[in-house]
Design brief:
It is a single chain. With 308 residues, the chain is of the alpha+beta class. It has two domains: 7-125, no CATH class; 140-293, endopeptidase domain like (from Nostoc punctiforme) (endopeptidase fold (from Nostoc punctiforme), Alpha-Beta Complex), CATH 3.90.1720.10. The protein is built from eleven helices and 15 strands. It has a six-stranded antiparallel β-sheet. Helix 1 (21-41) runs antiparallel to helix 2 and helix 5 packs across helix 6. The longest helix has 21 residues, at 21-41. It is globular. It starts with 14 loop residues before the first strand and ends in a 15-residue tail after the last strand. Residues 1-17 have low confidence and may be disordered.
Length: 308
């Protein structure tokens, strides 16, 4: 077993996923105790408390959600605190605008960059399945929803990944496995994608097939989707054609040699484009795609089809 050591992390505290090791151990004990109390006494309050603790101890670098709450704690007893805080939030507001208003209102010095990274990671890890049409099958319409949610959440791109949350251990493994495709971008990936979900182009599609919405886990090789590359997926497709003949079917794949994306309809594609781009929405008319295909291993449903 190899140990990966990075100079900038020699003095870092141990982390596991989104939490410091100490917080994770406490969280695990709280969840265990809450589960026992729920089973034997039906009490929901301890589980709710455990979930609250999990949220406020989410960590980005050396900052937690609790740190932001504490930054405003001293102002909590001031008259009109709640209304003043609520007034800081505006429709279609960016994180930068929100933090600027909060700092002006309360005289705090919250750093926008840290806040944006923290909130961005939380958003990125959440897989929105509220618009899925059928949890019992892997299908084109839910693939489109998977793609739309990933693009909105700001997923990153890391070669060899397929929708997992990028941990330090996973990044280290991919650096060793793919030095030419991941290793040379390690610092960029470390700065931009740690704690977020990531995928490469075909892994973006495979990740949907391997994702279990009931457990919120990506299970490698599940649901009949093999671990194949973009070109192999195109070659395996029975229904395909030149891009000029693409039918208006959301959930088709679009392809050119070595790369693949998801056609979401109305002339748009969502693709894991590359390390410096992440998962992005682009126009089908960009001219890069040469062929379309129906993805093997998933079902194709009509948009108007009655779902159970």
């Amino acid at each position: 077993m190899k140990t990966y050591i990075y100079p900038q992390n020699l003095k870092a505290k141990p982390h596991l996923w989104l939490w410091g090791m100490r917080d994770f151990v406490i969280l695990a004990l709280l969840v265990l105790l809450s589960a026992v109390l729920l089973v034997y006494s039906g009490l929901l309050a301890p589980m709710a408390g455990a979930l609250c603790f999990a949220f406020v101890t989410i960590r980005m670098e050396d900052t937690t959600v609790m740190d932001y709450l504490l930054a405003l704690y001293d102002h909590g007893s001031q008259p009109g605190f709640v209304s003043r805080l609520v007034s800081c939030f505006q429709k279609e507001q960016t994180d930068e605008q929100l933090i600027a208003v909060v700092n002006r209102t309360f005289g705090t010095d919250i750093q926008t960059e840290h806040f944006t990274q923290l909130v961005g990671n939380v958003r990125s890890q959440y897989v929105d399945t509220t618009q899925y049409v059928d949890f019992t099958t892997k299908n084109n319409l839910d693939l489109v929803q998977w793609a739309i949610a990933a693009e909105k959440a700001g997923w990153g791109y890391v070669w060899g990944t397929f929708g997992q949350v990028l941990s330090r251990d996973l990044l280290a493994a991919k650096v060793e496995q793919y030095p030419d495709n991941v290793g040379i971008y390690e610092e960029f990936i470390r700065s931009n994608y740690l704690g977020k979900r990531t995928a490469d182009c075909v892994g973006f599609i495979k990740g949907y097939s391997w994702y279990d919405p009931q457990t919120d886990t990506v299970n490698y090789g599940s649901n009949g989707m093999p671990d194949i590359g973009a070109d192999q997926m195109y070659q395996a497709a029975r229904e395909k054609g030149s891009i000029s003949s693409i039918p208006e079917i959301p959930g088709l794949a679009v392809w050119h040699t070595g790369h693949i994306g998801v056609y979401i309809g109305d002339g748009y594609v969502i693709e894991a484009m590359g390390t410096h781009y992440g998962v992005v929405k682009t126009r089908l008319s960009s001219g890069r795609w040469t062929h379309w295909l129906k993805i093997p291993y998933i079902n194709y449903l009509e948009e108007t089809e009655e779902m159970p």
